[in-house]
Amino acid sequence: MSLERMDAGLRREVENLTAEGRAKAPERVIVDVIPPQGAFGPRYKLDGHEQSFIRMNSNSYLSLSHHPQVIQAADAATHRFGAGPGAVRFIDGTFSAHVQLEERIAAFCGRPSAKIFNSAYTTNLGLALALQNKKTFWIGDQLNHNCIIRAMRIAGVPRSNKAIFQHNNMDELKACIEAVPEGIERVVVIFDGVFSMRGDHCPMAEINAVLAPHRERFAEGLVTVMDDSHGIGSYGETGRGTEEVCGAKADILVGTFGKAFGVNGGFVAASPAVVEAVRQKADTYIYTNPLSVADCAAASKAVDIADSPEGIERLANVRARIAQFRQGLADLGQESIPGVHPVVPLMVRDTEKTRDMVQAFTDGGVLVVGLNFPVVPKGDQSIRFQINAAHTEADIAEVLSVLKGML
Predict the structure, then answer these.
(1) Which of 20, 188, 349, 356 is the most buried (most CB within 10 A)?
(2) Residue 32: what pLDDT?
(3) What is the pLDDT of residue 47?
(4) What integer best gives the mean pLDDT of the chain?
(5) What is d(CA 380, CA 337) in angstroms, rounded to the nearest whole number?
(6) Is residue 7 part of a domain?
(7) What is the span of the domain harbouring residue 175?
(8) Catalytic position from the list 58, 63, 119, 196
């Protein structure tokens, strides 16, 4: 049969990925969550493992996914409206929960309007489709997330209409903007707020300064797009992310509810004109069912909590645990990339050693992510730790103890 022949070909392709070191490991299955006990935060049970684990590989920076108010909001919305929307947004699949979430996240981000998607990934794809035309030029950071790279490809941006600058290199950004060819009417400079493999962030104020002399140069504008999925809610004095840390704003902001807010979904926050263009032109919005009302209600409640004294307290604990962990790495003579974000990389710089250390952490009851080439450049092999609000002082001490035992 044809499928059997295709199966054989696909198996060979996966085998090649394995030989190249690019294949994903088998997925571990979480089967239970043990609530915080004493001085320790929650622990996780995996299928096939007797021991429990502390998660140092979760994006849920504010640890809100188990918050009783978030769960209650999802439950109440589901009982009122049902489990699924039954249609896409423009065919009566829009519920009050969708509109309320869009208004809430726009206000949190200091924008007049927002549009929600199933994920930040599909948000970037849809936004690119909405912004792209034949006279648009795109400029991006070398380390931009896959979704930004894929978005430009799906939007059909030709090679002649895009440029890449080395990571956070403002001299190269300046050269890119100065080299935009004649005939271009619209320029989009797009980048991550927090670079999730490294934990560092874009220099938003410096980007604006480089672009300032060119703002009036193009008939349909020069705009910045920042995907701050790892930043929104997770750092900054009030959780406003990279814009708050840098004291400067992007023109268009992309984010997610699936990280700091602990729920699901993505969003773009911008002017009403941008948001309406997204609604009209973004295939990833138009042709797929929206988030469930449970997701929307839970996300709205999570934003409310983040924007409250409790949220500020959770952020303060995250900062304290980051400081504790970074000091512990320094005391052990270990290298990291400087930063203030909950993503803290341990620079190993060797593929086999990274794999061995990840296994040693697992054996010690700590779940971490090893980053090897081509996910990161050769020489930048590392282990990524992610600090969350549910982590306690005792948790971080335990993780550092496991690390100390393998040095």
Answers:
(1) 188
(2) 97
(3) 97
(4) 96
(5) 10
(6) no
(7) 68-306
(8) 196
Q: What is the pLDDT of residues 131-160, one digit of tens each?
A: 999 999 999 999 999 999 999 999 999 999
Which of 306, 341, 365 is at the close of a domain? 306
Instruction: Give tens-digit pLDDT for 83-133.
Output: 999 999 999 999 999 999 999 999 999 999 999 999 999 999 999 999 999
Q: Do 145 and 168 meet the contact criterion of CB atoms below 8 Å apart? A: no
Question: Which positions ≥6 away from 58 have C-beta within 8 Å?
Answer: 386, 388
Residue 348 makes CB contacts below 8 A (sequence gap 6+) with 354, 357, 381, 382, 383
pLDDT confidence of 1, banded at 50, 70, 90? low
Find tokens 């930048």 and name the residue: 380
Residue with the two structure tokens 């990291």? 336
Known catalytic residue: 52?
A: no
User: 119 with 172, same domain?
Assistant: yes
Checking if the pLDDT of 266 tops 90, the result is: yes
The number of folded domains in the chain is: 2
Same structural domain for residues 221 and 278?
Answer: yes
196 is catalytic: yes
- Which residue among the candidates 145, 249, 259, 301 is catalytic per the annotation? 259
Task: Assign residue 340 the CATH number of its domain.
Answer: 3.90.1150.10
Identify whether the C-beta of residue 294 lies closer than 8 Å to the C-beta of residue 83: yes
H/E segment holding residue 4: helix 2-19
Q: Final residue of a domain: which of 276, 306, 336?
A: 306
